[in-house]
Amino acid sequence: MKNCIVAQSGGPTVAINASLSGVIEKAYTSGSYDHIYGSLHGILGILNNDIICFDDKLEDETFLQALATTPAMYLGSCRYKLPKMADDIELYEKIFAFFEANDITGFFYIGGNDSMDTVLQLSTYAKLHEKSVTIMGVPKTIDNDLCLTDHTPGFGSAAKYIATTLQEIAYDTSIYPLPSVTIVEIMGRDAGWLTGAATLARTDYGLGPDLIYLPETAFDTERFLEDVKEIMQKKPNVLIAISEGIRDKDGKYISASTKTLDSFGHSQLSGAGKTLETLIAHRLGIKVRSIELNLPQRCAAHLSSLTDIEESKELGRIAVAHALKGASGYMSIIRRESNQPYRVSYDIADISLIANEVRSVPRDFINASGNNVTEKMAEYLRPIIVGQPSLTYENGMPVYLPLPHLYPSL
User: Fold this and answer.
1) Where in the sequence is the domain holding 330, given as residue range(s)?
2) 87 classed as catalytic
3) How far apart, in Å, are the Cα atoms of 27 and each of 32, 57, 71, 173, 214?
4) Which of 60, 87, 117, 143 is catalytic?
5) pLDDT at 2 over 50
6) What is the pTM for the complete model shown?
7) Which of 242, 289, 353, 372 has the greatest number of CB atoms lying within 10 Å of its CB?
8) 168 lies in a domain?
């Protein structure tokens, strides 16, 4: 008997289920696995023996297609950091005892940076203890901050949502002749890829942000106020896009709470937009509002990119294909071959070169003043937001799959 199991971890995206469908499809059509299992809530499903089997679902020919366009994470998620082997070897023994008891020869983990740390730890244990289980990572993150891949599943759709939303906000805020400032806070703790996507709102027929600030350059509040005043000399309404993780020259987040850390030791960020709203109100005395895009950035399936969905599927397939050749301790990646025409290839990369690393926006994607992005950013972004997947609607609402951890009978 040879079985495989797949899990999802970290924050959701609208494309992570497309990667899941790619894993399941390739595992099924390869004929190399007798059963395909899913672990509910990431690695916790394995630790708690909380799993489902996809065998019956695959009898429905529409299942994988519907799965690929369902938002959030079909298998549920977790934010659980594996301890180092030296600190809790029994935990690793429990995980691999589960693999052995269920005849698991392939484990596929779909997630972002912290999830790839789990892939690294488990693949290292498997190698050290000569376990015959292949451990493979499949990338996912709207932050686009995983190394060695041109871009990550979920980012293209999130970028499309952000660009569309900024364009619509720009239209809305431009209708009044009264001076006003609108600040839009966009996800991105350490990398400003998502915020940079706001530049795509600047089309021949649309409006976009006047200023864009990313965490890759030091943020100066006095310079910021001068930037705003300079724009207001030319037009009454100023639209600003900022990353949640903007920080000063000393590396201090302008909105970080030093008292609250998540399970991975990251400072809890809250209110960069609100912080700057208060600053402008007090110092410039003009109408100002801040908008935090928050969760819709990662769950707006109605604005997803077909390119993103199709690439995400392929990355799932690639991970399985290489696992069947014996690869373990790798992540599937995208290589961009050209922009015009847009062409990519797929491969795998050593997980030890990816886990716990952060891929930042290149400096030449940001202007010299640090208050905008360059055309290189737009050229990089344009191809990956193209296309709209076909969604099924019922009574005017999109139809998505029910989540098994909420509806186990389905």
Assistant:
1) 3-153+301-357+387-398
2) no
3) 7, 14, 22, 49, 40
4) 143
5) yes
6) 0.93
7) 242
8) yes
